[in-house]
Amino acid sequence: MPAYDLAIRGGTVVTAADVTRCDIGVRNGRIAILAEAVTDAARTIDATGLLVMPGGIDSHVHLAQPSGEAVMADGFETGSASAAAGGNTTLIPFAVQPRGASLRESVVNYHREAQGKSHVDYGIHLIITDPSPSVLGQELPALVADGYTSFKVFMTYDDMVLNDRQLLQVFEVARREKALVMVHCEGYDAIKFMTERLEAAGKTAPYYHAASRPESVEREAAHRAISHAELLDVPIMIVHVSGRQAMEQIRWAQQRGLKVYGETCTQYISLTADDLKGVDMDETGGKYVCSPPPRDEASWEAIWEGITTGVFQTFSSDHCPYKYDSPQGKLSAKGRSSFRWVPNGIPGVEVRLPILFSEGVVKGRITLEQFVALTSTNHAKMYGLYPRKGSLAVGADADIVLWDPARKVTISQELMHHGADYTPWEGYAVTGWPVKTLLRGEVVFDDGKVVGAVGRGEFLKRDISPYAAPRLG
Ligand code: URP
Ligand code: ZN
Ligand code: ZN
């Protein structure tokens, strides 16, 4: 009997630490050996000319998430197919607690959405919209113990926003239970005020979504979240940072020794608020409505500054897909009446790795090792999946992407595997593209096609993150 089930031969193996020419041997879905030559295997994949990297981990995606009258374009099946086609092997989407509902019940319901439908492995973050005494006192501690070791809170959105006292209550539980809190930093009242003012002036086109929540709104909320985190000595992750002002708040906190982490996303290095103008301030701008909104090219440079200097630990997609031409999507009757009602979010899980690789590695802004850290390893470390996920080391899951660093692709909707009817990056040219994605040693994506049985992806009960430990113990 061969020593290994699979050998990946002839490739260049990249981790967050090293770039090495070696083969990989896989046994029982795990990496069993890295060696100059692995020959004794039942199957061989020739990786000559390719990079062999840990599968992407996208720790910020929304799938099958209820959101008022809108319907998300991806459940687990299409969302995870799109993820696999983009070189990802693990997703961490969110189970939302609707106001007044039990958090545990929301998690049970969310598992029903996922069960048997995922092409890749998945953990689950919690979204807390109603921190009632039973949620804070019983449900959250029990859920953290069960492997839901991170949760997100919102400083905006009518149906999600927490006030400052509620934020502090959640932060206090996070500190005690050693869970990592992700914070959506945009100030609710300022957005509401600006929205009403813009609408009163007849400025209702999708472009005004960006005008209703400028960078100062994000900066103010980031500063407030950091101040609350400092008050209680609790680590926080500020998610989807869009530009210089919020980035500098995080850097300021980090320089003061606070455990404040940062995440940015594909749209903040590749789209601008001008995209929200559409063809001529028309409805097509709705395709780009997301929060925080994309800013401008100077903001891209600020985000690169944050990436290259280590302000940001993770680079995510914030995949949050709605169809464009659908009454349940961007072009609902209400959505046409004002930017206020256009569902927030864009599809992007499939293009996260290609765009960061092309803009980052190919253009010489980041190294291959940084690319792997930003797209995989740091997500595993932050969210309690390391070392099982996020690296190519003996004993780790054989979650691997084989990557052609020279392949030139023009992104288009026809290439996408998501459930949305458009991609915001139509016509965007990249160099570098995934060729094969392997989940625990099995090929799930092969040269343009998602392959294998749906439902191979398993739920991941996550450990307490070492990054969630308070500074003062
Ligand atoms: O517009 C966005 N990003 N929608 C997704 C929800 C969120 O705030 O992450
Ligand atoms: Zn958010
Ligand atoms: Zn999000």
UniProtKB/TrEMBL annotation:
Spell out the InterPro entries in the cross-references: Amidohydro-rel, Hydantoinase/dihydroPyrase, Metal-dep_hydrolase_composite, Metal_Hydrolase, Metallo-dep_Hydrolases_sf
Is Hydrolase given among the entry's keywords? yes
State the post-translational modifications. Answer: Carbamylation allows a single lysine to coordinate two divalent metal cations.
Which CDD domains would you find in this protein's record? D-HYD (cd01314)
Does the record bear Cytoplasm in its keywords?
no
Annotated ranges, domain Amidohydrolase-related: 51-444
In-chain residues carrying the UniProt-annotated modification N6-carboxylysine: 152
Q: Which cofactor does it need?
A: Zn(2+)
A GO molecular function for this record? hydrolase activity, acting on carbon-nitrogen (but not peptide) bonds, in cyclic amides
Question: Which keywords label this protein?
Answer: Hydrolase, Metal-binding, Phosphoprotein
Instruction: Provide a GO CC annotation, any one.
Output: cytosol
Q: Function, please? A: Catalyzes the stereospecific hydrolysis of the cyclic amide bond of D-hydantoin derivatives.
| Protein family | Belongs to the metallo-dependent hydrolases superfamily. Hydantoinase/dihydropyrimidinase family.
Query: Could you tell me what this protein is called?
Result: D-hydantoinase
Please name the source species.
Answer: Alsobacter sp. KACC 23698
Upper lineage is: Bacteria, Pseudomonadati, Pseudomonadota, Alphaproteobacteria, Hyphomicrobiales
